[in-house]
C-alpha cells in the first residue's frame, strides 16, 4: 500500500467494528467508522438514498435496529493488499418480520484517516422491472469509468 499507512488488517478490523456498531445501534461508534462526508449507495427501492454523511448513515442504521429489529452478519470478507478497498458479503436479518436480505458491499477507505469514505451496496434480490438499468441510485458510473452500454 504505497499511498496509505493503513494495512489490509486495519481495513478488515474497521469493517468488523462497523458491523458491531450497527448491531449495537451505537451512534458514536458508527460515526467514528466514517469520514464526515461519507456516502452509502444503495440499489433503487429505499427512500432518501444515497445516505450522505456519517451522521445520516449512523441514524439510519439506528432506525433499522429500533424499527425492524435489524442485525447483520459478515459472511465473507476480502481486503485488497495494494489499494484501500474491500469487499464483503453480508446478511441483514430483519428479526421483527422474520425476513432477511443478502447482499455485497464495496468499501473505499480514506488513505489519510483509514476511515470508510464510501460503501456501495448490492442486493441479492430480483431486479426492478420498472427500471431500464438496475444500478445504484445517484452513483456516478460514467465518472468512475464504468461501461455505460454492452459491447
TrEMBL record:
Pfam families: SnoaL_2. Residues 15-118 form the SnoaL-like domain. It comes from the Bacteria. InterPro entries: NTF2-like_dom_sf, SnoaL-like. The lineage of its organism: Bacteria, Pseudomonadati, Pseudomonadota, Betaproteobacteria, Burkholderiales. This is Nuclear transport factor 2 family protein. Gene3D superfamilies: 3.10.450.50.
Amino acid at each position: 500500500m504505497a499511498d496509505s499507512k493503513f494495512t489490509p488488517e486495519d481495513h478488515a478490523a474497521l469493517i468488523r467494528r462497523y458491523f458491531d456498531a450497527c448491531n449495537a445501534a451505537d451512534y458514536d461508534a458508527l460515526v467514528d467508522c466514517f469520514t464526515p462526508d461519507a456516502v452509502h449507495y444503495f440499489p433503487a427501492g429505499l427512500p432518501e438514498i444515497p445516505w450522505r454523511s456519517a451522521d445520516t448513515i449512523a441514524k439510519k442504521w439506528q432506525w433499522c435496529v429500533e424499527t425492524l429489529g435489524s442485525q447483520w452478519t459478515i459472511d465473507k470478507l476480502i481486503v485488497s493488499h495494494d489499494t484501500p478497498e474491500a469487499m464483503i458479503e453480508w446478511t441483514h436479518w430483519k428479526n421483527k418480520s422474520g425476513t432477511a436480505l443478502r447482499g455485497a458491499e464495496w468499501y473505499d477507505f480514506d488513505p489519510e484517516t483509514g476511515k470508510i469514505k464510501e460503501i456501495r451496496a448490492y442486493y441479492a434480490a430480483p431486479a426492478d422491472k420498472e427500471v431500464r438499468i438496475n444500478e445504484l441510485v445517484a452513483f456516478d458510473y460514467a465518472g468512475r469509468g464504468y461501461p455505460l452500454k454492452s459491447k
